[in-house]
Amino acid sequence: MSGKTLAEKLLSEKSGTDARAGDYVEADVDVAMAHDITGPLAFQTFDEVTGDDGELFAPDRTVFTIDHHAPADGVQAANNHNAVREFAAEHGAHQFDVGDGICHAVLVEEGFVGPGDLVIGADSHSTTYGGIGAFGTGVGSTDLGTALATGELWFRVPKTLRFEVDGDLQDGVYAKDLILRFIGDVGFDGCTYMAAEYAGSAVESLPIHERLVLSNMAIEMGGKAGLVAPDERTESYLERQTGNEIDLGDAFVSDDDADYEAIHTYDAAALAPQVSKPSNPENAVDVTEVAGTEIDQLFVGTCTNGRYEDIKVVADILDGETIAPNVRMVVVPASKSVYQHMLGTGVFQTLTDAGAVIQSAGCGPCAGYHQGVLGDGDVCLATANRNFPGREGSMESSVYLSSPATVGASALYGEITDPREVETNRYDDTVFAEVLP
């Protein structure tokens, strides 16, 4: 029998079975998460399952965030926020409030998730946690509500698509460009209910904040999970984040003879910066094909590219410069820690001097609720993960997706610009951890 993929190993451990792709397993959940949109419905299911005296399966490993409609943009949003606060307080769960940040950033920064964990979140981008070697996946509010009571959930063990990138990336090419290229190659549904596994020397050289980008957008090609095998870089990152010694062992690496649905290989040096055209992430093209497209708004943030290192890439490009006339830039850090680091290092000042508007930590206009939604005919270049019609506002607006470097370069000229035309920087894992005491 062939060896196992990373996904098969993780679900084998959590189910206590010899799990193979296609099997159905009942697995133990390590961490469960919901936010202000999905939480209230999950709470209803939890109450139906447990009755009046229900208890969470593990309050210390249950996390709720208020991040989507944050601050509240209407009475219903405010009521949902209160429902989250009340449920978390009643059951002793962890709860992060308005301005604390996006669920996927907070769970990683605060050390809730580790390699080998099974993490479920009532949000589709819960695949993010695969960037540190966890099996993270999104579930519906009903499934989450049941798992909050039982600590278990069933899964069909996914097949795996493997993406191997070897060599050195060009200056101006980042993980966001890689994942847009992958999605463009296999299509928006090309990885449906499969795990996307990212490997190769170029992926191994990526800092953790960029690996999280790859895993985050696995769902944009239909992926059940997006996985990067943890390594010494993962150990060092988590030790800095948690203050605890991490020992990965060798349990979470795919076997050499593992069976993959398909393997896609890339030469890193040949990959150009990518832009996904409206209105689907799969519409990925080399930046040169859309260079010169005029833009009205630039959006930097989201659970994909709202980390400190992402925003610093933009700030370094704009340092001493101003945003092009008639173009607006909205910056929304992914967490309060990112916001504070921006203040403490001068990044905040650089961006505001350049003309950017900086919001409190959260999802911002990513899902078209508030804090910078688009009007009819507006064209936006965003570091977000989705660009469907109406995703960031008007159904008549257009959203292009790119890396922070491409957004920064484009801000200088008011049109989509190849980041290789300006100086860009890639930051390692110590930048966020060490810039402030």
UniProtKB/TrEMBL annotation:
Pfam families, per the entry: Aconitase
InterPro entries for this protein: Acnase/IPM_dHydase_lsu_aba_1/3 (IPR015931), Acoase/IPM_deHydtase_lsu_aba (IPR001030), Aconitase_4Fe-4S_dom (IPR036008), HAcnase/IPMdehydase_lsu_prok (IPR011826), Homoacnase/IPMdehydase_lsu (IPR006251), IPM_dehydratase_rel_enz (IPR050067), IPMI_cat (IPR033941)
CDD domains for this protein: IPMI
Pathway: Amino-acid biosynthesis; L-leucine biosynthesis; L-leucine from 3-methyl-2-oxobutanoate: step 2/4
One GO MF term: 4 iron, 4 sulfur cluster binding
Gene3D superfamilies membership: Aconitase, domain 3
Keywords: 4Fe-4S, Amino-acid biosynthesis, Branched-chain amino acid biosynthesis, Iron, Iron-sulfur, Leucine biosynthesis, Lyase, Metal-binding
Residues that, per the record, bind [4Fe-4S] cluster: 303, 363, 366
Entry's EC annotation: 4.2.1.33
Top-rank EC class of the record's enzyme: lyase
Co-factor: note: Binds 1 [4Fe-4S] cluster per subunit.
GO biological process, one term: L-leucine biosynthetic process
Cofactor(s) named in the record: [4Fe-4S] cluster
Catalytic activity: (2R,3S)-3-isopropylmalate = (2S)-2-isopropylmalate
Presence of the UniProt keyword Thylakoid in the record: no
Domain Aconitase/3-isopropylmalate dehydratase large subunit alpha/beta/alpha: 22-414
SUBUNIT field: Heterodimer of LeuC and LeuD.
Biological function: Catalyzes the isomerization between 2-isopropylmalate and 3-isopropylmalate, via the formation of 2-isopropylmaleate.
Family per record: Belongs to the aconitase/IPM isomerase family. LeuC type 2 subfamily.
Protein name: 3-isopropylmalate dehydratase large subunit
Organism listed in the record: Haloferax sulfurifontis ATCC BAA-897
Gene from which this protein is expressed: leuC
